[in-house]
Amino acid sequence: MSRILVDGHGGDSAPGVVIEALKRVHHEYAGKMTLGIVGQTDVLQPLLQAASLADAVQIVQASEIIDMCESPANALRRKKDSSMHVGARLVRDGEWDALVSAGNTGALMAISKLILKTMPGVDRPAIASMIPADGGSGKTLLLDAGANVDSSSEHLTQFAIMGSCYMQAAEGIASPRVGVLNIGSEDIKGTDVVKMAGASISNLDLNYVGNVEGTDLFGDDVDVVVCDGFVGNVALKTMEGVAHFLMGNLKRKLTGSLLAKAGMVLAMGAMRKLKARINPSEYNGAPLLGLNGMVVKSHGGADALGFSRAIEVAHREVESQLGTRIVEAMNTWLER
Predict the structure, then answer these.
(1) Are 100 and 312 in contact (CB under 8 A)?
(2) pLDDT tens readout for residues 122-154
(3) How far is CA 150 from CA 155, 175, 243, in A?
(4) Which helix H or strand E contains 3, and what residues bound it?
(5) Rounded CA gap, 90 and 87, in Å?
(6) Closest residue by Cα to residue 146 from 126, 161, 122, 162
(7) Residue range 251-268, pLDDT digits in tens
(8) Bridge partners (DSSP) listed for residue 294
(9) What DSSP string runs through 152-215?
(10) Are 120 and 333 in contact (CB under 8 A)?
(11) Which of 3, 117, 197, 319 is most deeply packed, by most CB within 10 A?
């Protein structure tokens, strides 16, 4: 069984949402996961008992909490007994297979990189986020989604290798199509970094499809989209905003008159499917790829469904031995 440890104090609504997510996962994956929660025992234990999870979830004591707006440098240096620190050390020492946190992204990245270190051939870890897409697996992997605001062509090449490995291992795609996010599909377009990255990736043993544009993110022409963290994070947040905008406006239009309400009743089934299809919670859980250990970042504002999806991402990573696959791919690249 995979051993998944969750940060009990990370996120806007922790620890309540975290406990609800653990309850959901415990019921859905009974016998397939060993679940743990790291944090302040006196806070977490009553909540687990109230949720009838006292015997199903192991508590790991950590005395300190990293705030969502806290400086990553301060969290790294001064809160060595925080839930993030303790969780990362336990993953490093092999006591748990993966850590899932909805806490401060900068702090989680800094602590994870310091404690777990990066794999051979990886200079910087990348946050990999899944987004909905038409056809194929119905998903596209976008990386980096915010870990590195300034990336070199070599970093983008590393992201391409890790992203391809992830889609093979976690999503079962035999030959993931890899593209570089650019302002046009032509090779002559884009910054020098993007052009050099495209040339480098094209020489790898990957299914490289060339440059892709923002309009291709939800299509069926690419499985892995590579970009720097600044571009990726802006794109991801824009998608989330558009999803909320569309659903909010659609709801208002369909409840604006009696005739519209009657039409909404007839279309209720399709509406539910559409909502589920573009619901950001369904795609929550962004692995930090490139570390010597598995860490998954949940959205800070995730609900119980969203956090449970992040736990499922960690479970799939462990089951598919993702870390071993990435190391093998990186070693092959380094030997070229």
Answers:
(1) no
(2) 988 999 999 888 866 788 999 999 888 889 999
(3) 9, 28, 27
(4) strand 2-7
(5) 5
(6) 126
(7) 787 777 877 777 777 777
(8) 98
(9) -HHHHHHHHHHHHHHHHHHH--SS-EEEEE-SSSSTT-S-HHHHHHHHHHHTSSSEEEEEE-GG
(10) no
(11) 197
Rounded to an integer, what distance in angstroms lies between the CA atom of residue 126 and that of residue 290?
7
4 membership: H or E segment, kind and range: strand 2-7
Closest C-alpha to 100, from 320, 327, 313: 313
pLDDT of 10 higher than 80: yes
Query: Nearest CA to 240 among 106, 129, 126?
Result: 129
> What span, in angstroms and rounded, lies between the C-alpha atoms of 149 and 5?
28
Q: Which residues of 155-187 are buried (b: 16+ CB within 10 A; e: fewer)?
A: bbbbbbbbbbbbbbbbbebeebbbbbbbeeeee
Q: What is the DSSP string of 127-156?
A: EEEEEE-SSTTSEEEEE-SSS-SS--HHHH
Distance of alpha carbon 204 from alpha carbon 206, whole angstroms: 5
Q: Which domains does the chain have, with CATH numbers?
A: 1-120+290-302 (3.40.718.10), 123-285 (3.40.718.10)
Residue that the structure tokens 């976690």 belong to = 170
Amino acid sitting at position 322: L
Encoded tokens for 133: 């897409």
Instruction: Note the pTM of the prediction, 2 decimals.
Output: 0.88
In angstroms, the CA 180 to CA 166 distance is 16
Q: How big is the chain, counted in residues?
A: 336
